[in-house]
Write a structure and sequence with these properties.
3 domains, alpha/beta, Cytidine Deaminase, domain 2, six-stranded mixed beta sheet
Length: about 400
């Protein structure tokens, strides 16, 4: 092993050995401070680092991402949390720095999917952030640096097996990138487009009012989907992704997936959910799974037994009309699409989950139909003329 090469445990699967990462020329732009990374760990690390680096560059706020299988389960910037979200994210008993707040938001977008995540930070990791990582089930972290007390905490996680990577924040890759698939080498210009407010100038709807919070959230959503396996729809609000629909073959299915995740994120803040009484010793992963069961429309007898084992008592589930009433309070949500929206069905579904702002490339045969749908709901929609597929 040299400064230009790292041997990995295995490739995508344990039978794919040997595996390594390397640079043909020059040193690798990062150091492994603890643990032994795997192939997928490194894919997550390098994709997630780019995401948080760009959010910090554009918004000048600390950023964090929670990655699973080379797509973000959540991403966020360090906007302060209200008391309901602190409780929903299980951090109401913790000291939170701005960077730790960003991770609480990123992890809180989809806590079930974030189980066993890869974490990325735009800034040097401090002690409050390390303590938050330490209490969650996670595989590794990448950041531009770590405070002495933070690295001490992280090096002890998983009995020293937790992967900690320090990346050079000044590293810039070459303009052309290559990959090899089935013995064939692919080459393309790296996607170095950075999502800035300048990309949000072409408003095509009657309503053209984009408040600063919406600009921020559209940037968060769009930067998030830039690093998500396509097709992709992303929902964001309050400086964080709240629903990412990744890798589906049809855009409406991406939309439904993202919207359902956004709905579940908001339902987790319902007083009935925040008031659930957990039995002593029930951990956060079990609570996340229990909340997921509780919020289902129907549960099986076996699922009810699982809830009874986790809760001191199982309250009545929320009725459909109670969910509908609560979800009606969700407003001001931003939606980003990585390619053009071909039908108004995406807008119709998005409206049910509080979407007020939409950004997409445009240039569909049915642009006028989609614009009309946004006008029907008094949404603001921006065309960027920029596709952001990621594979």
């Amino acid at each position: 092993m040299t400064d230009s090469e790292i041997a990995l445990r295995y490739g995508c699967n344990p039978h794919q050995v040997p595996a390594r990462i390397y640079r043909p020329e020059g040193e690798l732009p990062f150091r492994v401070l603890s643990g032994s990374p795997g192939y997928i760990n490194m894919l997550d690390a390098l994709n997630s680092w780019q995401l948080v680096r760009e959010l910090k560059q554009v918004l000048d706020l600390p950023a964090a991402a929670s990655f699973k299988h080379v797509s973000p389960a959540g991403a966020a910037v360090g906007v302060p949390l209200d008391e309901a979200l602190k409780k929903a994210y299980f951090v109401d008993d913790m000291e939170l720095s701005p960077l730790a707040t960003a991770y609480a938001r990123a992890r809180g977008a989809d806590r079930v999917s974030s189980y066993g995540d890869w974490v990325a930070f735009s800034d040097v990791v401090d002690l409050p952030t390390a303590r938050l990582i330490n209490r969650e089930v996670s595989d590794g972290v990448i950041a531009p640096g770590y405070d002495d007390k933070a690295i001490d905490v992280l090096r002890k996680k998983k009995n020293g097996r937790y992967v900690v990577i320090e990346i050079d924040p000044g590293y810039e890759p070459e303009e052309l990138e290559t990959r090899e698939i089935f013995g064939i080498r692919f080459e393309q210009k790296r996607n170095d487009l950075v999502v800035t407010p300048d990309l949000l100038k072409n408003t095509v709807t009657v309503n053209k009012e984009l408040p600063p919070s919406a600009v921020r959230d559209l940037i968060v959503a769009t930067t998030t989907i830039k690093y998500t396996q396509s097709n992709t729809i992303g929902f964001a609000v309050d400086g964080q992704a709240i629903g990412v629909g990744a890798g589906q073959q049809s855009r409406i299915h991406c939309t439904r997936l993202a919207a359902d995740k956004a709905d579940r994120w908001f339902l987790r803040q319902h007083p009935a959910v925040l008031g659930l009484k957990w039995r002593k010793g029930v951990g956060r992963p079990e609570r996340n799974n229990g909340i997921d069961l509780y919020l289902q429309d129907k549960i099986t007898p076996i699922e009810r037994e699982l809830l009874e084992a986790a809760l001191e008592e199982v309250p009545p589930q929320l009725a459909p009309e109670e969910k509908e009433e609560w979800l009606g309070k969700m407003t001001g949500v931003s939606l980003s699409s990585d390619a053009f929206i071909p039908f108004r069905d995406t807008i119709d579904r998005a409206q049910q989950s509080g979407v007020s702002y939409v950004v997409q490339p445009g240039n569909s045969l049915r642009d006028e139909e989609v614009i009309k749908a946004c006008n029907d709901y008094n949404m603001v929609m921006v065309f960027t003329s920029t596709r952001l597929f990621h594979h």
